[in-house]
Amino acid sequence: WLSDKGMEHTRGAPCHPQTQGKIERWHQTLKNRILLENYFLPGDLEQQVAAFVDHYNHRRYHESLDNLTPADVYFGRGDIITLERERIKRETIKQRRLLHRDAAA
């Protein structure tokens, strides 16, 4: 499955953050988010962690993924979204050129 998706499983040294960079960064991000709130019941914490994971994977754009969400990349929607953004950008530039041309005339 991994090779079909163009991915490779790489194992790093245990307890060595330099080789576990991405997951360590994920843990740091999650930990920082958790520490911002007070949780009075275990269910509160579980609910907030689940909400954060959903936000992180389905709503938050990641610069390292060309401003796509991990879910977009995982489900193969990245190319379609990128093409649509490029189309919108071309149309916007076209409209701005027309507006500037009309303003200059």
Automatic annotation (TrEMBL):
Protein name: Transposase
Stretches the record annotates as Disordered: 1-21
PROSITE patterns associated with the record: INTEGRASE
Pfam families in UniProt: rve_3
MF (Gene Ontology): nucleic acid binding
Occurrences of domain Integrase catalytic (ranges): 1-78
Record-level GO BP terms: DNA integration
Basic and acidic residues bias: start-end ranges: 1-11
